[in-house]
Here is the input.
Amino acid sequence: MMPSRWERQDGVAAESTGLRGDTAVRDMVSGTGQRSTSELLRHLLTGDSAYRRRWRAEVRRASARDPHQSAVAAVLADHLWDTGEVPESDTDLPRRLKDVVARAVSGRGISHQTLGWFVRAFDMKDEHERALWQQLEADLRADPPAVPGGPRRRASPVPPEHPENPQTSASYRTQSLIEQFEVGADRSRRRHALEHIIRAQGLVERVTYRFDTPEVRVEVARGGVPGPLRADDAPGMFRIDIELPAPLEPGQTTVLETIATYPAGGPVTHHFRRGLRETAGGVSLEVRFDPDAVPERVRWVELVDAGTGVAATEEVPLPPDHVVHRFLTPARDCAVGFEWDW
Here is the structure.
């Protein structure tokens, strides 16, 4: 019987990469020919029989890529749904995770959060997990921050509300960002929780967050000690500096968790947006509406050129629990978020 198209491609891919089953994977983990986290991850997914069977069970359409990116994305999506990290109502998750997989296995970028998803979704063996984390830390140490005055790629503008806007001189990279925004019964913003994992690109002693109102109470649940809220240099903006317990050296990471609460009776809110760098890792945005403040329509919006150009707009159905959610990894500098009509 003739082999299927996928089986022929799988054989060609395995031969071209020089894999010879689990023995080759053991050699790779031991360090032979290892060059990056992406390369090691790719070899594990294609060379370890258990991992290969896991993603091949999700193949729905033949592809020349090895590993099959859509199939691997399906494995990650199942894991995130099963653990409750992403609600099952987010049926578009596998499609969006395909870009995460492509970046991870091609060497274009993999965050601590993304690597953790791979490790847990594929139930990786202890020696493989250790090798991946060790290689990721080695990659980060080998990726020094840009030298002041040296050549660098020109970045697109980022909206001013984002802490990584060039005007803020942030010397860190976002590895993971999880945000939850709540709208109260009076249609004003009520609560904004943020979990932010950063990796230092230069010496980082404090992290600054900005707000467009002084009527806000900020609690730091993890990661540092907040200073007073004070007027920012930008007109109409206010800032709070969070002092880290110890300065971060280039390549080191830390986690900050903040909760901002707003008094009732504030201005009616119509959107929640976040500016993002192309280099940011996984980003999770959620908006929760009070049952007494349900909007007529909700849209997902992607903006470019410092928020002046609309790249995409998508109508979002509002589920019975009145919560909308989106997970993404930015492909370029942009601002994204939800907007709604009352």
Observations:
- Confidence is low (pLDDT under 50) at residues 1-25, 30-34, 144-169.
- Residues 144 and 150 are 12 Å apart (CA to CA).
- The first strand starts at residue 172 and ends at 183.
- The chain has two domains: 5-141, 166-341.
